[in-house]
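User: My advisor, Dr. K., asked me to get a structural model of this assembly before our group meeting. I'm new to this, so sorry if the format is off. These are the inputs:
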Amino acid sequence: MSDGRREDEAPLFEGGELSDERLAQALPAVAARQAADPDFRARLGQRLLAAASARAAVDAHAGAPAPRRPSRRPLLMAAGAFAAAAALVGVLAPRRGALPAMAPAVRTLAADEPVRLRAPAGVRVGVALAAAGRASQPLARLELRDGAEVSYRPGDPAELELRNGFVRVATTAPLRLRAAGQELVTAPHSDVSLELRLSAEGENTMRPVWLIPTSAASGAALTLAVLVLQGRVELTRAARGAPATPPTGQVLVLHPDEDGPQTLAQAQRRITELEQKVSALKQESGRYAGQLAQKKGVTTASVLERISALKRSPYAAMLAPGALADLMTDLKGLGPAGVEAMIGLLKSTDANERFLAGKLLEDLNAPSAIPALRQAALNDDDKMAATMAGHALALMDDASTVPALREIADANKNWEARVNALWGLCKHGDQRAIGEALAYVKDEKQSPQARAALGANLMLLSDPELLPIVDETVRQFGDAGQLATIAANYYKSLGTPEARERLEAMARNQKLNEAYREAARKALAPAPR
Amino acid sequence: MATDVAALARGERAAVEAFYRELFAPVYAFVYWRVGGVRQEAEDVTQETFVQALASIHRFEARAGLHTWVCGIARNLARERGRSRARDARTALDEGEPALRPSASAGPEVQLARAQTERLVGLALTELPPRYQQALLDKYVHQRSFAEMAAAERSTPKAVESAVQRAKRALAEGLQRLGLGRAEGGAHE
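Assistant: The format is fine. Below is the predicted structure of the whole assembly, which you can bring to the meeting.
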């Protein structure tokens, strides 16, 4: 068995070529899975056309030709496109005979317990709330979109509070809906959508807007939109001038009153300010490190002297992180001069010094060191110094390391260098490296230690594109308990249906080591509410 | 390709329609396999891809085809989405829709293997130029004869057969890059 094929499946390749028979089996399944929902296709087409028309109208109004635009313009246009799309959907929805489909409920929650729910970014997800033993007749079905947050509290009637984003609610019993101090009560068998948007999110956000036109949100601290698709909803507490009963099929836009809602918006603004301060503080800390280095009289020469002392036992120095951490602080304080000093040290005649320079450059994470590290990784005749230089490149968070890592992987000087380079390339999403890493993990001519090391370290990247490599590592090294835990954590971190299937299969598979099954069971355990 | 990029940049309706008609299916398929086969994610990323592509069409420099350029945007968005999903995976609501189709005749292990093979084929297929993808789908999914395909493309059966062979070889190479069919000299997957 290999490549995701079990014994009872014929191979895709026969005699080195793709089998016509297997292609005729596999491609229809692939085509069926990758076929889009025709409704989605039509909807998106309408949205794009509406956005294009709006944009053409703006261009015509401004009398401007279509050439290159200022850098911020595309984002603004994108926001406008979504707003135009939302307005279009709002107009079209009531004309359609049937209501738009809700996202299917992936979970039924107890209606007699309070719960707070949040949809992950970019995901539309459905849940049902039902009394014990009445899962087939839920009190309400909810659809949350793209980061939306709601709190549910049982009661008579039960209460659902929208904290942010978009939620659609279909009820079978009365339900009190709250958002930003506004309050609505739904009659049984109502279907209503709410969207709450905070101005602190900014106008340029790419987050889709579902109901609120951009012009309606402009300048408001908070904007709430209500769209009743079916049934009767009463506004029991609302901004001045709002109708008692929102009309069915029309988006009602509310700007909540000055008290509670503004406090929320102010809190959001405060968070944004604090984030800016944190960023500024990080820059400050770099400056203070420089000042501290000056006060301590740290110079390039004194750092090199300390390295010279450490070089007698460089591996011991790595195991005693205190000494290196102190050195690193001083190096950072020296700024570019510290990086330059380490680049120079990569050419030392002493291999231990070159090794330490590689290690320190790894921690400095300085792109200016890439050419020197590449040179050392490819040409240093000391294996440890060369491997450390390659390791530093692999760990660097800079895509300009990719060409150097490719050269190191292709040079294939030893397994450590190749594994490190492939890891770094996969981290940057290099498609060729992902294929090579998969082949490497499968290749029984390579040492098991190297294959397991590559597979296990790739799991730490939590990248869904690496799923086939992780699967293969699990298959090949199924009796290593620590690796099992890392694999289970990887699958859990993906959170996709495919990954969940892997965990369930692992938990059930009696042929697997108990360590794997236990790790899978733990990963599958529901998160505490 | 037929799309008039200058007209697209001006937001002309006909150009947007042509662009969308030509690229929607291959871009959606491309995205679908790169977001783990989650339909809702694929829809969101496809939408973002087209919005971003149209908003930045003035930056398209025709060094590669429009399909390649749009798929580049899609690849980046799918990757960002994957990372953001990984960060958010601890929430209780991340199941999405099932990627595996229930089957009475196959156990979970077989279903998993089949789903993985389909995923790899999907990834490799959607890396191909659209005309190669179409040739393979016409032959192996719609089971059209070379004569029928030739008539539709105003070509000859011989030329179509040759295109299908080239597409098949390109798919095989793509699958090999993903690790299929390589380990044992091509004798097995």
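One thing worth pointing out at the meeting: Residues 1-8, 57-98, 200-206, 258-264 of chain A have pLDDT under 50 and may be disordered.

User: Perfect, thanks a lot.
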